[in-house]
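# step 3/5: fold
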Amino acid sequence: MMRYKLLGRSGLRVSEAALGTMTFGETWGWGASKDESRRIFDAYLAAGGNFIDTACNYTDGTSEEFLGEFIQEHRERLVVATKYTLTSRRDDANAGGNHRKNMVQTLESSLRRLRTDYIDLLWLHMWDGMTPIEEVMRTFDDLVRSGKVHYVGFSDTPAWVVSQAVTLADLRGWARPIAVQAPYSISGRDVERDVLPMARTLDLSFTPWGLLSGGALTGKYLEDTDAPRRYEGVGPKTNGIAREVIEVAEAIDASPAQVAIAWARAQPWHLIPIIGARTEEQFRENLGALDIELPREHVDRLSDASDFDVGFPRDFLEDDHVRGLIFGDTFDLIDDHRAAAMAPRLEAAVS
């Protein structure tokens, strides 16, 4: 059975893994039928899961429609998260974006499809680069005060924007974001540069998607195949990492998917992975990652295989020479309780 985690700076308890439902529906040419989606949903609840992630646009609204039926007898116990931003009418300039009009209209549509009168967590799906953050945060707060939304978060948004949002909320007494969402995997660690350090500092939970890099880390694209893929152009680097994942999986008697998910869970972040699949069998296999604790040697092996360069400013500020310029000979004599949990990752990044 699953354990639970507090979601960001809130008292909300969510499962240690979320159910991702972008595969619920076949309108995009791939995904799960209604019956298969129901089996995945039931398997997740049977395992003790309570945190479900969807979006207004997933399979053109089919995901929310399926969930609207599935959650009816379980609504009180479930934490349902959905997203707004992406356009619903490509010829309408206001049918997409982060602004108030789209947020309110999209929420109303999601409530109808989900057959509920409130959303537990409303995500801004992707940053549009033009809506004032004050407008976003004030509208979020209005919806929370109305009771239609309980909590808010940011997905696929630059760290500096989320930092602005949290600062505004704290200063003005508005609803404070409690989580961030972004892609994260052994082959895609960009969020370690600023998004994840920001999340840790501001007490935001991180709910990563794309843990398998669209299935590439399972080795499914090592040979040419006609199988549906979410990410195009899988290259030699990703396939090289996939081979390492497969070897580790063989060594510990697990599946490559379980190893890739377990690697992410072994990282020193407050992380709640989003786990999804196109079949019940795949989902049960992926969920098995919760029972795996990768030995440190394998975690390090996979991290090394990614050949990740954290880049400026972290690699600069964490360099021993630069620390000497700042602290002289006293850095190792200072007990910084805020950085203690990060020490293993920072040392690995510098090395």
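# step 4/5: annotate
The beta strands are 4-6, 13-15, 18-20, 51-53, 79-84, 119-124, 149-155, 179-181, 205-206, 274-275.
# step 5/5: archive (pending)
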